[in-house]
Amino acid sequence: STDVMHIGPGNSVAELKESILGHFCFDVGKSPEYATLHDWYMAVAYSVRERMMEHWVSSLERIRDKHQKIVGYLSAEFLMGPHLGNAIINLGIEQQIKEAAEQLNINLDEILQQEEEPGLGNGGLGRLAACYLDSLTTLKVPAIGYGIRYEFGIFDQMIRDGWQVEITDKWLRNGNPWEIVKPELNYGVKLGGKTQGYTDEKGGYRVKWIPEYEIRGVAYDTPVPGYKNETINLLRLWKSEATESFDFQAFDKGDYYGAVHEKVFSETISKVLYPNDVSEAGKKLRLSQQYFFVSCSLQDALRILELRGLSLDDLPDAVTFQLNDTHPSIAIAELMRLLVDEYMVDWDKAWECTRKTFAYTNHTLLPEALEKWSLPLFAHILPRHLEIIYEINSRFLSDIRNKYPGDDDRIRRMSIIDEQGSKYVRMAHLATIGSHAVNGVSALHTELLKQDVLHDFYELQPDAFFNVTNGVTPRRWIKLYNPRLASLISDRIGERWITHLETDLINLQSFADDLSFQQAWRDVKKQNKTDLAHLLKQRFGMNINPDSLFDIQVKRIHEYKRQHLNALHIIHLYNRIKQKRTDGITPRTFIFGGKAAPAYYLAKLIIKLINAIGETIDNDPEVNQFIRVVFFPDFNVKNGAHVYKAADLSEQISTAGKEASGTGNMKFSMNGALTIGTYDGANIEIMECVGEDNFFLFGLDAAEVKAIKQNGYHPYDVYNNNNDLKEVIDLIQSGAFSKGDTNIFKPLINSLLGDDPYLVLQDYQAYVDCQQRVSAAYNNEQAWTKMSILNVARMGKFSSDRSIRDYCENIWHVTPG
Ligand code: 26Q
User: Fold this and answer.
1) H-assigned helices in 647-744
2) Record's family (predicted)?
């Protein structure tokens, strides 16, 4: 039905066509005969955006409605992925747009390819924020995603001579049709300087902050459409600018250069996303970024409160702020400062209000990833906040002293200030103490948080701890990026699964043994694999065979994620082929993708190793009739569109206890891949859902990892006692993959043989054995297909809709609309 009656811009083919042409004329400003594909992309994007704006106004109404609590999702990262395809799906106009494009003689797929994705995140945490905005809106929960409008997002990755090369991400260079700047929505943000005590009119002691400088944050709004529900939420990102007043001061003195310099500094704050996904200590600009976006967001929330005609007492009922890791946790001190210093609220009342307003999600257990700021640095940028943190800490620790008299060690462990050696502010402690709820992102992760990283806090307040297992949105990750599978599913069970994954997808189970359904299922996978093979051929000249098993690991490159364990298995197969022990080897294509933090040397060396193995195999026909290895450069959301749907096997092989949840594991499994994985993060829950028989589990569990480390782990002995492993490592060392160079991979080998912090060698044999079971299973086409169907059917729990419902019920206490 293409001719639905409508108020506002219509969604019929004719109306869409007219709208696209109109935007072409009036916004692109070219005659169609000179049009580039990008020009057409802009015209289509404007037309689609217009169809969201229709619902924009009613959404603003909801923000003014004082009876509805707003969720403020505070996150330093939002990895939204391309907007156009998603907006078309969520507006439910894909048929009409396709038809309109055809009539205009333009190819919709080519148009969609034109969009440069906003890469405003590193990986899992940023993408989770994006999936959550989709679900919040689909569930009609009023929400604003608050973050930073980085001018340069995560770098683009190129591979040169097998090494990663980083290229600046100039995502705004061709304009961004999805954002709407709100110049009138801007707030001042102070930085640096000192504090000063004074006595107020009533004789009370107060403190004011005399900053060194002030910058301004301007709001850039991007509409977030819900799935076919005429609802829009807001992604509100702050761009830093110079304040007019500072310019004028300099101009008054005739200091033109000084004024421009000031402007350059102010604009630096939102210039670039930090490209590491583990916290990096000692970066002044990073702390300034965090404070900048948090300060703007809190001021914005107080403005909304005023707009609703409410008072500060109403704040916790009007807004709930979710802290996406500790990155925005300075918000706790900032709200205290606003309430105490600026609105003159008394401390206890302000503290109660603050704790009711915030909740904190932890995303990591890696000790080196826990954010901490050196005291001098913190004092330099946020002198008043440091005083406030001291006050929070001193009141908190005196409570602890009362509860546990004489337990000085506990005081030392729980303090917000780390005082062993150089002093640091521990942001996870601030976030935990200042929130009414703390959550981990998978069942195991939450358990480990309670037993380990935040154990003392859990003992103090067990009721404040929750688990919310992560989820991903089936709109983007199935319907948009795997349309063939989506249609096949809808043919059998209807379309409700798109918004009711948990209850409806399970109905696929009854087709698991249906031979004609199985054949259709295999056909879809085969076509998806063929698409990926074509793309890799066309873009990079790579040759891969869609009849082989596609074994895929895509995620940030990290030692704890153990891409090098995967590489060791490949070399094991290589050895077997060279030694003519090929029985039981199933033809495979190993596909890797992922970025390494630019300063993470070993991660970059792992990329080089993968490419070196790939090249050696490419040049060896004896080996490449069995296996191939490719590295898909620049893995991001847009490229993910071609990858998840084409996988037979999903690699989720982190050291147990290290991957908080993982979300790629969910995307693969709900697109029909089977998982080879460790007992880690959400893998455990995925296995519980899909069934042990439909999941390839291997390796140590978290308790065993802990035990083996405590009892002394000796990787060199593991190497010496396992001939197969020894051959694999010695082959790398011999230069077999590096044209005889015996030095290049030494740092990696030394790390593995030296202390092997992530137990790669320990899990090696279990992994190789498990891979052998995978190969055998893949050879039974029918059984494999059945397992694949059951994986998809049983993945309903991992919709981000379920995660958001959990947050609503347990943490935010809001009812989905
Ligand atoms: C912090 C300070 C300074 C510089 C960088 C950072 C920083 C930036 C990004 C620290 C961490 C991150 C990102 C972490 C992340 O993506 N964690 C992942 O979160 C996912 C969603 O919960 C989980 O599924 C993954 O297991 C977890 O690794």
Assistant:
1) 664-669, 683-690, 702-710, 715-721, 723-733
2) Belongs to the glycogen phosphorylase family.
